[in-house]
C-alpha cells in the first residue's frame, strides 16, 4: 500500500490572495464648457457652439475691413468674404461667422453689437442680417 503524503507543518503553506483593495483612479473627462466670456461678449448676437473651432493663424491680414463708408457695399463685402473663405479653405461655419464679425469696424461694428443676443443662429442668417442694414 502506498501511503499518501500529507502536508507537514514544516512545509510553507500557500497564502491566499490578498484582499487588500487598491483604489483605481479614473481621470476625469474634460467637461464641455460654454463659450468663453470674452468671446461671448464680442460675438453676443451670434449663437456659437459650446466648443468653437480654433481660428486660423494670420486671418486678420487676409480680411478686408468694412465700416459702411464709401462706395463699397454690403453685397460686395459679403461676396469678397465668401470668396476669401473658399480661397483660404475656411470650412467651419462658426469660424466663418467670427471672421466675418472681425471684418466689421466703426459704426457697422457698433450696429452688430447692438443686435439681440443669440439672434443669429447660422452663417446664412448672418449674411442676411448684414445685407439688410
Structural descriptors:
133 residues, 5 helices, mainly alpha
Protein architecture, described:
The structure is a single chain. The chain is an all-alpha fold. The chain has one domain (37-131). Helix content is 35%, strand content 0%. It contains five helices and no strands. The protein has helices at residues 37-42, 74-87, 93-102, 106-113, 123-131. The longest helix has 14 residues, at 74-87. The radius of gyration is 32 Å and the shape is globular.
Rg over C-alpha atoms, rounded to the nearest angstrom: 32 Å
Please identify the structural class as seen in this structure. Answer: mainly alpha
Principal-axes geometry comes out as globular
Helix content: 25-40%
Low-confidence region ranges: 25-34
Total domain units? 1
Q: How many strands appear in the DSSP assignment?
A: 0
- How many helical elements? 5
Amino acid at each position: 500500500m502506498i501511503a499518501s503524503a500529507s502536508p507537514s507543518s514544516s512545509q510553507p503553506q500557500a497564502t491566499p490572495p490578498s484582499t487588500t483593495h487598491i483604489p483605481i483612479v479614473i481621470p476625469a473627462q474634460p467637461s464641455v464648457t460654454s463659450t468663453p466670456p470674452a468671446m461671448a461678449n464680442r460675438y453676443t448676437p451670434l449663437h456659437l457652439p459650446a466648443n468653437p473651432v480654433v481660428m486660423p493663424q494670420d486671418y486678420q491680414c487676409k480680411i478686408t475691413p468694412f465700416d459702411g463708408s464709401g462706395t463699397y457695399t454690403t453685397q460686395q463685402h459679403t461676396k469678397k468674404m465668401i470668396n476669401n473663405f473658399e480661397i483660404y479653405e475656411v470650412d467651419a461655419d462658426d469660424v466663418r461667422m467670427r471672421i466675418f464679425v472681425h471684418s466689421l469696424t466703426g459704426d457697422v461694428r457698433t450696429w452688430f453689437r447692438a443686435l439681440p443676443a443669440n439672434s443669429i443662429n447660422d452663417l446664412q442668417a448672418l449674411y442676411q442680417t448684414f445685407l439688410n442694414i
